Amino acid sequence: MVTDDPPQSGRPSVIMMTPEQHRQLESLAREIGDHQELCKRVYKRVKVAKDKVATLILSTDMARIQDVLKSGEKGKYPDLFREIMNSNPSTGGPTADPDQVSKQADKDSKNH
After folding, report:
1. How wide is the angle at C-alpha 98 spanned by C-alphas 45 and 108, nearest 5°?
2. What would the pLDDT profile of 55-70 be if each residue is shown by its tens digit?
3. N or C: which end of the chain has fewer CB within 10 A?
């Protein structure tokens, strides 16, 4: 059996982003580089509700993102995720419910 995703040992995380950040993520998913596959995986799990965008990030991808952010690496990919994580750090935690992505997007769209 072949999958498109790396094996997982932890729960995925839900993060929220703006429509502009979503557009930037789409661009990075198309841009060739070592970040491309990670950005594709994050982008394919996006749910949109009105002006809010939520996505489910696999545990291995979240670990990679956090490592890059801690290292202080610069560039389009780290800068985008740094901006996303800094703008809503409370939504980056693990979730047991993949439907939480849609629920979080709906909840946030009602609060604004």
Report:
1. 80
2. 999 989 999 999 999 9
3. N
Question: E strands, the chain, where?
Answer: 13-17, 46-49, 52-57
Distance, CA of 10 to CA of 33 (rounded, Å):
26
The answer to whether the beta carbons of residues 12 and 59 sit under 8 Å apart is: yes
> What integer best gives the mean pLDDT of the chain?
81
Pair of tokens at residue 86: 């800094």
Give bridge partners of residue 55 from the DSSP assignment.
15, 46
Integer Cα distance of 38 and 36 in angstroms: 6
User: What residue ranges in 2-104 does DSSP mark as E strands?
Assistant: 13-17, 46-49, 52-57
Cα 8 from Cα 12, distance rounded (Å) = 9
What is the tens place of the pLDDT at every residue in 24-57?
Answer: 999 999 999 999 999 999 999 999 988 889 999 9
Residue 29 neighbours by CB under 8 Å, 6+ apart: 36, 39, 40, 42, 43
pLDDT of residue 79: 96
